[in-house]
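Hi U.,

Before I forget, here's the chain from the pilot set. I'm dumping it here mostly so it's searchable later in email.
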Amino acid sequence: MRQTSGYALLEPGQELRPWQFERRDLRPDDIAVTVTHCGLCHSDIHAVDGASGLLVPGHEFVGTVAEVGAAVTRFAVGDSVAVGNIVDSCGVCDYCKAGQQNYCSEFPVTTYGGSDYHDGTTTRGAYSREYVLREDFAYHLPAGLDPAGAAPLMCAGATVWEPLVRWDVGPGTLVGVVGLGGLGHLAVKFAKALGARVAVFTTTAAKEQAALELGADEVIVSRDEAAMTAQNGRFAFILDTASGAHDPAPYLRALALDGTLCVLGIPQKWTVDPMSLLIGRKSFAASGSAGLPQTQRMLDFCAEHGITADVEVVGLSEVNAAMDRLRRNDVRYRFVLDVTR
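Structure:
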């Protein structure tokens, strides 16, 4: 077994603490990655706050290949790599065959808190110095992408990228982005780089300047009823990145004929008036993460267009303070942990 260290939740309800632990010895198709940067995602907060036992978080990270298994062909020692929120899938179900390993029928092995297919051990995340995984679930990190800004691309970036390309967002498309957080700010950057015109829906006018600086063409305050009524029938596609419970009806009304509202933040319950879909032949959809082909395509697109997340970098030892700030939404737009300090 390989010795490493990181930060872990050792007891429910407590802060994360330094912890020494073991990674598995490399299987033939494994690589060992020396982690340099790991994003701090809202889902990490939910996992920590809801955990009943030991947990090492971290599922969007970049680093350098430190060792390769005997059968590895895609990577060599020293390669820069990026890893997202899944590290294995069955490979044989219809979803996996379609390149949608994120929807694996057997449920994919998540980067932390998952159950390894081979030995049943619980996966431990990348708030740590080293990570071991199958080479198929690591991605080549293109040269020129800042590693800190690239780390959140592996979760937030992939999550907004896949629906944008699935619904053919491009030149001539009017796209709405609901929310301007970790996901929303990347959705604006992607949609603009794809050639679309972008409007940001936000609950407060205070975010207008930030949205425009990111490239948005217009900003709509969703609490302004008159402003929302003026949007009826305008949009071909709206990507809803807001995580809190809210009414989808105003955004469905904002769709044009055959438009789609795609939600990413999934509350416990949605209430949708069927007539809001019938009139205009509109669609209400959802999307989660991305499969292997689209994730690498997303990284390559980011390199081509110079896109990374807007991040605040803190040392791994500052993880608890960063989590407290994230709980208060006190970050613009994503924390990234520098695991080297």
